[in-house]
Automatic annotation (TrEMBL):
UniProt feature, compositional bias: Polar residues: 1-11
Species: Macrolepiota fuliginosa MF-IS2
InterPro entries given in the database record: ThiF/MoeB/HesA, ThiF_NAD_FAD-bd, Ubiquitin-activating_enz
Name under which the protein is recorded: THIF-type NAD/FAD binding fold domain-containing protein
Pfam families to which the protein is assigned, alphabetical: ThiF
Domain THIF-type NAD/FAD binding fold, chain residue ranges per copy: 26-337
Gene Ontology MF terms: SUMO activating enzyme activity
GO aspect biological process, one term: protein sumoylation
Amino acid sequence: MDVSQIQTTLPLNPHNPLTEEEATRYDRQMRLWGIEAQQRMRNAVILVLRLRGVATEAIKNMVLAGIGKLIVVDGGDVDEEDLGSGFFFRDEDVGRKRLDVAKPRIESLNPLVNVETITDPSILEGVAFENLIQNVDLVCVTDYDRQSLIRINEVCRRHRIPFYAGGSYGFYGYIFCDLLDHEYLSPDRTAPKEAPRNVKNKAVYCKLTDALQYKWTGLTKRQTKEVNPALFFSILGLWQYEFSHQGLPLDGNSAGEIQSVANSLISTADVNKQALQEVPADLIESLSNGARHEFNPVCAIIGGVLGQDILKALGGRDPPIANFFVFDGNTGGGSVCRLNMP
């Protein structure tokens, strides 16, 4: 089956083929994923909310790959911490609007991509946000709190817009995606080697609130350990702390409270006790100490995985993340938790 046979939210436009300049610039990647997938990326309008380290890396990947239009919303100013994780910023940019500084540098990565920036945060509220969402093909939210992620995901669901979220906390990070009913092509492993072919598959995703209510009942000890539940529940505990205190912890003094919340969530989710009874104290302490800080290598990895997965979803080739990815920078390992998906 050819990729052109797959139905996605980004239909091909036969009256607007790739230009000679685009064909030349994207030649290598089109050999990898095909001209039809490239056209879908080129037709896509991507909305990114907040420009920090993870978003910086994701944006780089998407712009270099040739998406059609990038819209970035961020009303913040460049601070000294941005200099360590955002390669769009320089020392002399501190105090200026992030997007005023970043826009020309994003455009320089690929002049063929249309870049729009919005510095007014009111665009993210009420009718204005509903109108903005209706004019994009995918939303990517980075380094937001849990309640904001849930709210934005709900708006995206109402308008049938695929949703990605990602963020980092020091040495740790995560990605969540809700791609609604997503169709994609993957290799048919039953086909003979001399006649390889692709088959169409479908993955049904759930919204963030449903994913967070997932029951781990029935998973074996081995199945549970494979997805690093300790880090997953530690991040959920951190989200609850952020909600309760209206901000992330300043240091490790909050570790006890976060650990208590995480352990309670483990019990409620019915996690296999042979695999995990409580989150390790050293993990919680490390997460608490680094929660407010960005570590450039971790941002690069999380943002790189995020950007590539978005491109994979747009192109309809191979399965995207399903549906919650966690990364541990201490071990260099990442794992995917499949939460409330068939």
